[in-house]
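Long-time lurker, first post. I've been practising inverse folding by hand and with some scripts of my own, and I keep getting stuck on stretches where the structure tokens seem ambiguous. Below is the full token string for one chain I'm working on. Before anyone asks, I'm not after the true native sequence, just a reasonable design that respects the backbone. If someone could post their per-position residues I'd love to compare against what I wrote down in my notebook.
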């Protein structure tokens, strides 16, 4: 997943001083952003009001889009550093290829997890012969300092564990939910889960009081802690809960994102997560000169060019504006 903004704003985030220990119900606004040739995404994180949820630092929701007569997702090769990308589909297919030589078609219910570590490049596209509807989410997880220079890696998990009962059916994408652990590699305490609620259901989902959480509605109109959420909504919930009340009048699905508040201060710019202006500038230079990130083979088209750096130095600051 790439940030295709030609003038990306630097985003400074991290640190725990702005995290309240009390539950909140903060609806975060979305920004429509073009992605490739024919895909529009709703960018929900980072935003004006909030930059991170645990280690989750980037959230895009897209679709359902009718792409029967369209090319669908077409994101040319681009670099990443200091983060993990999480690809999650509700409908359609996405073909992933990267500079490690990975080539994998992702389908609904399958996790594509790419750990960029010190440097990787990848491309994402709808296959030439693809389903008529595309619907999913693309997310980033910031890597803590101890692991952000790790070797790059690609994981594909075709099957993931589930938590069922009490009116819910939850797929544990990353981390741990109600004692069930995902096999996906995680470098900080977090959770990512896809939760379905049938029409007329209500439930109380156990959560950890020291995690901060948010709910991203994928379909239907789930009610999370008393707040009704139309598709594409992101509700920030804060910390301090031991359970999360859920209900739905229609068949609904949402993603639960959470984790320990990310203590380290970081700076995000374009497709990089770093700790200083100098580090981001070096990553941009390395991508521009063709070093360090490797080559993505097989994509029909040129790689993305890095935007110009802003005229002021990038500095890591707090989690909220």
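-- Answer (accepted) --
I ran through it position by position. Result:
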């Amino acid at each position: 997943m790439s940030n295709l903004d030609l003038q990306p704003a630097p985003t400074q985030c991290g640190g725990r001083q702005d995290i309240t220990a009390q539950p909140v119900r903060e609806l975060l606004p979305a920004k429509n952003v073009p992605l490739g040739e024919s895909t529009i995404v709703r960018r929900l994180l980072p935003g004006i009001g909030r930059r991170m949820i645990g280690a989750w630092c980037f959230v895009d929701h897209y679709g359902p889009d009718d792409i029967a007569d369209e090319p669908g997702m077409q994101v040319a090769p681009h670099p990443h550093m200091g983060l993990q990308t999480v690809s999650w589909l509700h409908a359609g297919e996405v073909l992933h290829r990267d500079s490690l030589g990975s080539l994998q078609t992702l389908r609904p219910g399958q996790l594509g997890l790419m750990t960029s570590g010190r440097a990787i490049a990848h491309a994402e596209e709808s296959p030439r012969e693809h389903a008529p509807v595309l619907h999913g989410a693309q997310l980033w997880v910031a890597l803590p300092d101890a692991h952000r220079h790790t070797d790059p890696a690609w994981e594909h998990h075709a099957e993931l564990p589930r938590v069922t009962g009490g009116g819910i059916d939850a797929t544990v994408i990353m981390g741990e939910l109600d004692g069930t652990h995902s096999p996906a590699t995680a470098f900080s305490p977090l959770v990512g889960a896809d939760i379905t609620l049938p029409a007329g259901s209500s439930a109380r989902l156990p959560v950890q009081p020291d995690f901060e959480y948010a709910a991203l509605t994928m379909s239907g109109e789930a009610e999370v802690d008393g707040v009704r959420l139309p598709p594409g909504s992101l509700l920030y919930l804060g910390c301090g809960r031991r359970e999360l009340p859920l209900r739905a009048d229609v068949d609904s699905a949402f993603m639960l994102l959470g984790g320990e508040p990310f203590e380290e201060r970081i700076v995000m710019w374009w497709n990089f997560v770093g700790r200083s202006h100098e580090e981001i500038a070096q990553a941009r230079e390395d991508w521009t000169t063709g070093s360090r990130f490797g080559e993505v083979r097989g994509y029909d088209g040129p790689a993305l060019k890095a935007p110009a750096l802003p005229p002021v130095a990038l500095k890591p600051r707090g989690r909220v504006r």
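A couple of notes from the structure itself: The chain has a mean pLDDT of 92. The first strand starts at residue 11 and ends at 13. Happy to go over any region you disagree with.
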